[in-house]
Predict the structure.
Amino acid sequence: MTSRRALLLGPGLAWLTALLILPCALIFVLGFFERGVYGGIDYTFTTENFARAADPLYAGIFLYSARIALSAVLVSLLIGYPAAYCIAQQPKSRQIPLLILVMMPFWSNFLIRTYAWIVLLNREGLINSALTGMGAIAEPLPLLYNDFAIVTGLVYGYVPFMILALYSSISKLGPELAEASTDLGADGLRTFLRITLPLTLPGIAAGSVFVFVLSIGNFVTPDLLGGGKRTMLGNLIYDQFLTARDWPFGATLAFLLVALMMLLLTLQAIFVHRASGNEEARA
């Protein structure tokens, strides 16, 4: 039985080792070397890169990236929860087509979809043109090349992950819970706050981690929709590798980002496990 299990797990473990564990280990090791005179790597051991990452300049970029990512999480949650709840309340025959519509943006290239937002948000774009034509505004709004545009692009790109995670939790709730709450005299709002929301917290946690992790490491959206005026962590890592050619410091920043992602995913898994245990105990 053990050999059969090893045979079944072998291909997956080999894939994860080759494409996940080894690259992360390589990035970690590169962080302990120095930048070469003309870029690249000088194999001289040092811990300066990790101390440099704590510099207020880079700490400020990290905090800014975290703020933008959290903003994307909150907006995605406000959009995704009603959408997931609505889909989960539909008959089974309609849920699959609606989920396909949620996933449909993934059928096109992310870069093309980001460029589409430039067409929508610029001063002569569709949104400003429509508002000006209706007389709602006297002059075009500054919708592009700012934090608003970055958050908008991130939300558009990653809100499907939030919807799918929330749908997975909401769809597990049987109608008998709401019926029992109504029979006990609770109105719709109290039923949502006391029953539906607490039971879907694992889905909220999963969707929030997905959106946050993907947003904080994104470099395409800040570069295009931010106009290069704002630097996020992903842009900083990109510049270290391809512009400054400081591979060791870029590897250090990349490893810290991966470590943050793993920490968040671990905390989310622990939260979901405890929430599942509490539900089983109540049952």
Remarks:
- Residues 53 and 59 are 7 Å apart (CA to CA).
- The two ends are 34 Å apart (CA to CA).
- The mean pLDDT is 88.
